[in-house]
């Protein structure tokens, strides 16, 4: 008889509790999962290219017949494109949310507002579904799990727009800043720039993902510290392949050499990809659900004296 | 008309260019270059590379290293000497341009600076003692375009539109080592297309009579806007020492024509077209400014423009009469034109009336004649009718007579018969 106590009791035989991991895995594989990523940054920083490179397929709007000489939109638009990717039996519904027009106007005041509104709208949608009397088995998750912010590689410091945006949105969504088109900078310039950016983020009180306050244990902390030291990642994106040393690699061919995207000596794309997809994908979703969404929910429930369950199709905002 | 004559011996005025050359060398040259663009586009590095000096060094960091909240216009002077020729180079930098969140009117300080330099020159020109006239006007403005690979940003278009008739604007693609050669070509084409669309007048290289020079000029024109890379770091490549940027995947050489257009820019700016830039500034942009400024001054000497500069104070006395005269003449001319216009209109009206009258007269005439002819015809018709009737009457008469005659004859024959019968009986 195993006593119910705080400490672990020794098992007298193999029960099979550990097969729960296998059961969960099977269920996840069958159900598939959603991942929503938002890319924000000025035009021409290589956002679409990077997303295509990350997911090794034409998933951004660039593939949907968007021509190179499309005019910069006069106001910020939010465009979401969804694709279903499959790998090793696991299905992922990837939604890429693009924000053309961000930071491109002469007067960029409040250009973060449409983005903030979009993010909150997704939380609202989820909240409404959750609060329903008859709930769906699996609430469709359109919340933005991760927002990749593209920093212009000036080599000097962050621009006022960058700081403003990140300050305002770091509390409602996971922000991962990356240095775009980093093949502009030499290695020394890159290190200097990164240091300066990190200092400015610290001075502005901006918490980017992975946030220090959410580290659960020592192992997490040490892993995340390593990542925080290396951030923001200096990336280069490309969807063209070239032959280098007998191998076919993704890269950019210039007159003085080929920039290899996945070569860690050239740029930090591989690190970003591993971090984003191979190790922290689930964590991004959890932080979005457990922390950002809960913050939003608490705020909503505290205002207007609470929220009563509504049946579907009752879309009056004033009810809530 | 001056006719060209052949000389019969060596006179010697072919030496004139040498004299001009020697005088100018003694005087030294001045050149003011303005660089405009967002922070971090490599403006300071490019200036250092162009003139091979450290205008901005580690001890005196360039304005871009300091955080600016508003757009400033800063100038730094440097004296460079080469081969006995002295050049006073003034570099005007615009830190803070395009860096704020709201960049509306960030071009205003730049415009104010250019105008103030032109005004200084105008005042110096109008003075009585003109011995020393320093030329601080901005001769060339290098505008740095961020290498997005897409096209011009609204800020770029707005800025160039406002400055293309005040200063020579030369657009450059900054940090061109970001782009692959194909991307660079596409980008250049896109930029030129947009420049033409928005009717922006960038600096145009003049065509020369020399065929070789023309070929060069055409090559430059094809490469516009020039894609540049700047660097002051010397790196060793294949045993040669070159200036470039060291990447893990290779070295981008600044002076290699296949890597970027830096050499084209340097040759154009310094070696071939510096004098032309100064000439265009003097003859075109400065003259535009001057005529605009002077036309704004009314004959009361009250300056209608915002800046009540020295022009009105010191020069108002001397400038009043010729200026007022110009105004008078202009007004007279306008009035004359108006009068001529009115007269011509009157004449036109009159002629129209006459013609109309004539037409009406001829119409009436035609009517009358038509009536007359009709009446004639009717009269003739009546006559004919009359004649016909008379003829008919005559015919009737004649027939009646014939019948009577016939009857008489019958009667006569009848009586003869009767007589015959009677006679026989006798």
UniProtKB/TrEMBL annotation, chain A:
The keyword Transferase does not apply. It is found in: Cytoplasm. Transmembrane segments: none annotated. Residues 31-303 form the Septin-type G domain. InterPro entries: G_SEPTIN_dom, P-loop_NTPase, Septin, Septin3. It comes from the Eukaryota. It holds the Pfam family Septin. This is Neuronal-specific septin-3. It comes from Gasterosteus aculeatus aculeatus (three-spined stickleback).
TrEMBL record, chain B:
It is found in: Chromosome, Centromere, Kinetochore; Cleavage furrow; Cytoplasm, Cytoskeleton, Cilium axoneme; Cytoplasm, Cytoskeleton, Spindle. GO terms for biological process: cell division. Residues 27-296 form the Septin-type G domain. Pfam families: Septin. Residues 323-408 form a coiled coil. Gene3D superfamilies: P-loop containing nucleotide triphosphate hydrolases (3.40.50.300). GO terms for cellular component: axoneme; cleavage furrow; kinetochore; midbody; septin complex; spindle. CDD domains: CDC_Septin (cd01850). The keyword Cytoplasm applies. InterPro entries: G_SEPTIN_dom (IPR030379), P-loop_NTPase (IPR027417), Septin (IPR016491), Septin7 (IPR008115). One of its GO terms (molecular function) is GTP binding. Keywords: Cell cycle, Cell division, Cell projection, Centromere, Chromosome, Cilium, Coiled coil, Cytoplasm, Cytoskeleton, GTP-binding, Kinetochore, Mitosis, Nucleotide-binding. Belongs to the TRAFAC class TrmE-Era-EngA-EngB-Septin-like GTPase superfamily. Septin GTPase family. This is Septin. It comes from Gasterosteus aculeatus aculeatus.
